[in-house]
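Please decode residue identities from the backbone states below.
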């Protein structure tokens, strides 16, 4: 393990004093080079980033989207980041279900890039996976995407080239696809977008990323600065009794959020690709990287309400949990009353008959044996001895969900050179890129995934399938009583999850973990859906 030197480009990561550095790791740095964008560039020559704008797209519209360097000031530190059309987040694209829009992308950064239209069941050649569906967009080049949106829902777009770096630096934006049905959702006073993220920073700015390979390969790159819509001080104003619909997207590299809205009730109405069978009350919104949720909240008390990430953090070495709250947004609720009272409609939990009918048509598959079984594992090599000794200690506790980075030094020093995350086909024994499943369009496929706790450091995984949609039928043999179409779902350590996948979209597609560092440490494979 190389040592920190002035020329290495590495700076010591921020450390929680409750989690002291392991003896023998003093001065150690990752085994890869350090990367920061725009080294040597005068920040004054880079345009200041602008807040996200709404772009309403009609059928057949063409949007020009640039990928460029931008200047940001976060926590009082000015730094160079990336942006779509110079904005943070990228423009909110507002389209109508069933339409097709054309997006012409120009790459103006010093790295190859692509755009993946996360959750959209579009044509395969526009899915944005380098080496599978397209060549990377090199610096100075263009690529034209035809984005057909067959489903209503909240989707998002981001790179699929070193997204551990590019996405973390600000390359993400939402695509809101609206149903033409005016009764699709219940009435609200207004809508708000919440894009939640985190950044890893110290007093000098952004901590470098790995150049040749990702750092933080064990747990993913957790940040210590929380962002909502790219802001550290997100605020809102509302009136007493106002009902607000929140579209929430988690674009973080690794962090799963548990979002609360003070004492206000939360009505869960939709997720990745449409509405639930039935609206339901929920105490909080657990949202993993890549997921989206739609909730309605009524603010019924004047004063300040804090939208927060409310978790039970863990100290691995002591095996102790402790409560931790991150403020995400502050909502000032005035005593002024809305002219339109939506209390009655807010109290109503609506049923989605269209979704219920779709589920009834698929129920014959629910109790079938799985067509495929996967197991998640991790394999390490050449890890520093102090880390190995620590991980093998009887005092180390591994929880089902990692809400925080409870071993920051070990996580930082673990790169894609030392860590391989694995999706293993339990029948064939094949792993990651050696797996290649083949299906026909129209197949209904049941996939069982077991997150094994018996490995070096097991970790929860948000599982994402490109180009298709699925139902989460069961977790740990407990039947899901309220189904919704998903493209990403979290799998805790030690848990088993049954997915029912509708193979509706032909092409070559990816199946992977959406923790960016796990993806770049090998945790993916491709599958084919053929036409009849």
């Amino acid at each position: 393990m190389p040592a920190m030197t002035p020329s290495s480009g590495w700076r010591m990561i921020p450390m929680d004093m409750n989690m002291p550095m392991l003896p023998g790791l003093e001065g150690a740095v990752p085994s890869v080079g350090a990367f920061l964008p725009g080294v040597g560039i005068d920040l004054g020559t880079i345009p200041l980033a602008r807040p996200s704008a709404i772009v309403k797209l009609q059928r057949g519209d063409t949007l020009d989207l640039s990928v460029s360097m931008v200047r940001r000031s976060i926590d009082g530190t000015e730094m160079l980041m990336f942006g779509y059309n110079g904005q943070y987040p990228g423009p909110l694209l507002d389209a109508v279900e069933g339409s097709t829009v054309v997006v012409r992308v120009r790459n103006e950064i010093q790295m190859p890039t692509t755009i993946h239209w996360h959750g959209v069941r579009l044509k395969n050649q526009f899915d944005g996976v380098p080496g599978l569906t397209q060549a990377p967009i090199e610096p100075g080049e263009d690529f034209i995407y035809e984005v057909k949106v067959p489903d209503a829902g909240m989707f998002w777009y981001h790179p699929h080239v070193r997204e551990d770096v590019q996405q973390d630096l600000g390359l993400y934006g939402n695509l809101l696809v609206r149903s033409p049905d005016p009764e699709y959702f219940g009435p609200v006073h207004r809508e708000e977008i919440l894009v939640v993220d985190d950044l890893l920073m110290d007093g000098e700015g952004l901590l470098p990323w790995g150049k040749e390979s990702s750092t933080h390969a064990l747990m993913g790159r957790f940040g210590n600065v929380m962002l909502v819509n790219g802001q550290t001080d997100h605020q809102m104003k509302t009136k007493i009794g106002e009902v607000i619909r929140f579209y929430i997207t988690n674009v973080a590299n690794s962090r799963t959020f548990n979002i609360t809205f003070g004492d206000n009730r939360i009505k869960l109405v939709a997720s990745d690709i449409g509405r639930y069978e039935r609206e339901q009350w929920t105490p909080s919104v657990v949202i993993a990287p890549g997921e989206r949720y739609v909730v309605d909240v009524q603010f019924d008390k004047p004063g300040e309400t804090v939208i927060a990430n409310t978790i039970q953090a863990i100290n691995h070495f002591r095996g102790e949990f402790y409560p931790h709250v991150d403020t995400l947004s502050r909502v000032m609720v005035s005593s002024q009353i809305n002219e339109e009272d939506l209390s009655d409609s807010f109290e109503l939990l609506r049923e989605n008959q269209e979704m219920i009918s779709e589920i009834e048509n698929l129920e014959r598959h629910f109790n079938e044996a799985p067509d495929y079984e996967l197991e998640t594992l991790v394999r390490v090599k050449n890890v520093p001895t102090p880390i190995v000794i620590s991980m093998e200690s009887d005092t180390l506790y591994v929880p089902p969900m990692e809400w925080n980075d409870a071993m920051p030094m070990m996580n930082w020093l673990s790169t894609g050179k030392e860590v391989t995350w694995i999706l293993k086909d339990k029948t064939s024994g094949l792993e990651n890129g050696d797996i290649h499943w083949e299906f026909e369009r129209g197949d209904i496929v049941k996939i069982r995934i077991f997150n094994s706790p018996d490995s070096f450091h097991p970790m929860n995984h948000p599982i994402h399938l490109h180009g298709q949609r699925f139902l989460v039928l069961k977790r740990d043999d407990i039947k899901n009583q309220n189904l919704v179409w998903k493209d990403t779902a979290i799998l805790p350590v030690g848990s088993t999850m049954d997915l029912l996948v509708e193979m509706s979209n032909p092409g070559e597609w990816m199946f992977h973990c959406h923790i960016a560092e796990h993806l770049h440490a090998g945790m993916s494979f491709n599958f084919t859906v053929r036409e009849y």
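Observation: The first strand starts at residue 34 and ends at 35.
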